[in-house]
């Protein structure tokens, strides 16, 4: 399903929540974000394969290994992010996107625009984080 959107379209609270336009807006936003992450991952892998450990100097080699370790950790975080993006796309297909998984209430458009993988309203997220902190401190 593809819905034609003007390039300057932004979801508005004056429209029905999660109408076709809003769904298409968030679908595109998620797909573009996902593609950007995957492109960066491909570039990192190509760079790592090309720049294998060639430095004869042990200090240069250690520096390169540290840089690569940081890049790989970043890519691992991004891999997890891609998985969350995929889950958000599935929720879109199932008609569940944009609704809090705890309360069932709509998540604000502003929150979704800033964090399109959000699964909870800001209030539910804050309660969740507070409970995690309480249990972590026990």
What does this structure look like?
With 138 residues, this protein is an all-alpha fold. The protein has a single domain (20-137), classed as Four Helix Bundle (Hemerythrin (Met), subunit A) (Up-down Bundle). The chain has helices spanning 20-50, 58-94, 109-114, 122-137. Helix 1 (20-50) packs antiparallel against helix 2 (58-94). The longest helix is centred in the middle third of the chain and has 37 residues, at 58-94. It is flat, with a radius of gyration of 20 Å. The N and C termini lie far apart (49 Å). The model has no long low-confidence stretch (mean pLDDT 87).
Task: Spell out the blueprint of helices and strands.
Blueprint (H helix, E strand, L loop, with lengths): L19 H31 L7 H37 L14 H6 L7 H16 L1
Helix pairs in contact: 1-2
Q: Quick gist of this model?
A:
The protein is mainly alpha-helical. The chain has helices spanning 20-50, 58-94, 109-114, 122-137.
Mean pLDDT: 87
Specify the CATH class. Mainly Alpha
In N-to-C order, the SSE pattern is HHHH
Strand content: under 5%
What is the count of β-strands? 0
Structural class given helices, strands, pairing?
A: mainly alpha
End-to-end separation: 49 Å
Question: What is the assembly state of the chains in this entry?
Answer: single chain
Tally of domains: 1
Tell me which CATH architecture applies here: Up-down Bundle
What gross morphology would you assign? Answer: flat
Say which CATH homologous superfamily is assigned.
DksA, coiled-coil domain
How much helix is in the residues? 55-70%
Count helical runs: 4
Enumerate the spans where pLDDT stays under 50 for 5 or more consecutive residues.
none
Give the biggest beta sheet.
none
Q: Provide the CATH topology.
A: Four Helix Bundle (Hemerythrin (Met), subunit A)
Radius of gyration: 20 Å
């Amino acid at each position: 399903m593809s819905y034609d959107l003007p390039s300057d379209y932004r979801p508005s609270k004056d429209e029905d929540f999660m109408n076709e336009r809003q769904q298409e807006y968030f679908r595109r936003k998620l797909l573009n974000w996902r593609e950007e992450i995957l492109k960066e991952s491909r570039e990192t892998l190509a760079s790592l394969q090309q720049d294998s450990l060639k430095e004869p100097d042990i200090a240069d080699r250690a520096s390169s290994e540290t840089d690569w370790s940081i890049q790989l950790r970043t890519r691992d975080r991004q891999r997890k992010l891609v998985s969350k993006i995929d889950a958000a796309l599935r929720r879109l297909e199932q008609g569940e996107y944009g609704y809090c998984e705890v309360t069932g209430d709509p998540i604000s458009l502003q929150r979704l625009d800033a964090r399109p993988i959000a699964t909870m309203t800001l209030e539910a997220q804050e309660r969740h984080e507070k409970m995690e902190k309480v249990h972590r401190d026990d």
